[in-house]
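Chapter review: from sequence to fold.
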Amino acid sequence: MIETRRTNLGSVVNEGARLAWLKMRERDWDQSKLRAEIKAQTGKEITSGALVKYLYCDRRPGVQWTIVFETVLGIAPAQWHQEPSVPFAPPAAEKAA
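The token string follows.
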């Protein structure tokens, strides 16, 4: 069986995504757990496709979702529009290295 995971970031690398990965790791959450926590804490449902686009820096979340991420992960909305404070890669890239 060949396991495929995304190992690269998109064109809008940002501090919000970096912090999201960091906070997910601290809480031992994967993307499914984050989606479940978003629904449990806010009542909102985020598609896996939208979440992937935000986490992998293909897009920045809009105002509605930055507020959700602030509620669930403690990431300030402005951080999604800032350059990362340190370089980062998604967890799959670290495992592949």
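Two observations follow directly from the output. The CA atoms of residues 7 and 94 lie 8 Å apart. The chain has a mean pLDDT of 93.
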